Here is the input.
Amino acid sequence: MYVVINQIMRTFISLDVNDSNIIENVLNFHDIVSDFHSSMRLVNPNQLHFTLKFLGDVSSDRIQKISNLLSEINTKKFSATFNSIGVFPNYNTLSIIWMGVDNNSIKFIDSLSNNVNTALCALYKFDDIKFIPHVTLCRLKNLKNKSKLVSLLKNNSDLIFGTQEFHNFSLKSSKLTDKGPLYTTLSNFKFHDV
Here is the structure.
């Protein structure tokens, strides 16, 4: 007799950034802020992504239901241009540095996020927090010489990272480790051709 254990997974819906030119430019950005690396936890450039929706802890038996609902989303593939640096929550109390996209790209990504919310509304009641499309580059802790970093970021706020065409989005699990998060793709959802 076999006993099936219902596993709990920390999950999120991801739009992955994997263009080699963008990754190279993110590494160049790491060099620009190298004086502050001791206060930063840099995101692995091979794990860059938009978090379209964080679902939190989800039981393995619910993953298939979520995947079925997400597979119904009908979105065309699109391109996004990464052309800015921003911070959360603000320059006075910054804790995250992120890479942003142009206004046209924001519309596509925002629409996809709304479609995800609509698709999952039967399973989840989401809060009304405004979605801000961004890709986290690093997290800050015990920052010294904040004014120097703020000046550096403001001087590079319109840094061009490149353009990527997006063909799919994913449902992923995340396992936190001492070396950073490990992501596992649970399902991929392809966009349609134009």
The first helix runs from residue 20 to 32. Strands lie at 8-16, 40-42, 49-59, 78-88, 96-101, 135-140, 162-166, 168-177, 180-190.
